[in-house]
């Protein structure tokens, strides 16, 4: 059975562009509950740990350094079928391929700066949520 938790980050480019509010509004309008949220900045080591599955890929260094370059918003979202529904709402990894109306289509500039992160599985959603938030900071 699909879980009801996913994890998102609003990435440095979207934060710097002043799109935190607009993105959170869309998230809430689409039925996601914000169970935890924080504005924070990752260290390069933390970004490399978070994206460890991509270690060795050609974009790994630049992508993790970018993720650590400025503040992000980290949040736990809950909803029935959260992981799949949120992936659908954010759209394809490459914003040029993201469907009309998706967050990445609306707010991303390029694949390396694609506005938001979304968990790819229930298992990773729980790992990613725990990376940022202890249980006492979830509501
Ligand atoms: P997603 O974020 O859609 O789950 P991935 O997990 O495959 O995508 O990749 C993690 C992040 O790495 C992407 O969101 C994107 O910012 C970056 N990325 C992925 N592929 C590339 C690429 N070919 N070139 C540059 N950056 C990439
Ligand atoms: Mg991914």
Can you offer a commentary on this structure?
- By secondary structure, the protein is an alpha+beta fold.
- The chain contains 7 helices and 4 strands.
- Strands 2-3-1-4 form a 4-stranded antiparallel sheet.
- Helix 3 crosses helix 4 (60-67).
- The radius of gyration is 14 Å and the shape is globular.
- It starts with a strand and ends in a 7-residue tail after the last helix.
- The mean pLDDT is 97.
- The structure holds adenosine-5'-diphosphate (ADP) and magnesium ion (MG).
- Residues 54, 59, 63, 93, 111-112, 114, 117, 120 line the site of adenosine-5'-diphosphate.
- Adenosine-5'-diphosphate (ADP) binds at residues 54, 59, 63, 93, 111-112, 114, 117, 120.
Helical residue percent band: 25-40%
Strand pairing plus helix content: what structural class? alpha+beta
Please state the average pLDDT score.
97
Termini, distance in Å?
Answer: 23 Å
Taking the sheet with the most strands, its summary is: 4 strands, antiparallel
Widest β-sheet, arrangement of strands: 2-3-1-4
Using DSSP, what is the number of strands?
4
Helix and strand string, N-terminal first? EHHEHHEHHEH
| Beta-strand percentage range | 15-25%
Bound molecules: adenosine-5'-diphosphate, magnesium ion
User: Runs with pLDDT <50, length 5+?
Assistant: none
User: What radius of gyration results from the CA coordinates?
Assistant: 14 Å
**Shape verdict:** globular
Helix run count: 7
């Amino acid at each position: 059975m699909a879980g009801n938790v996913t994890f998102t980050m609003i990435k440095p480019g979207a934060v710097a562009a002043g799109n935190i509010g607009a993105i959170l509004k869309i998230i809430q309008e689409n039925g996601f509950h914000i169970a935890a949220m924080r504005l924070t900045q990752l260290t390069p080591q933390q970004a490399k740990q978070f994206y460890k599955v991509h270690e060795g890929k050609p974009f790994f260094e630049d992508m993790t350094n970018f993720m650590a370059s400025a503040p992000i918003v980290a949040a736990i979202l809950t909803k029935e079928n959260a992981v799949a529904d949120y992936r659908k709402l954010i759209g394809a990894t490459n914003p040029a391929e993201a469907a009309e109306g998706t967050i990445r289509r609306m707010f991303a500039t390029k694949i390396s700066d694609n506005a938001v992160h979304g968990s790819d599985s229930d298992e990773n959603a729980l790992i990613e949520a725990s990376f940022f938030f202890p249980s006492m900071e979830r509501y």
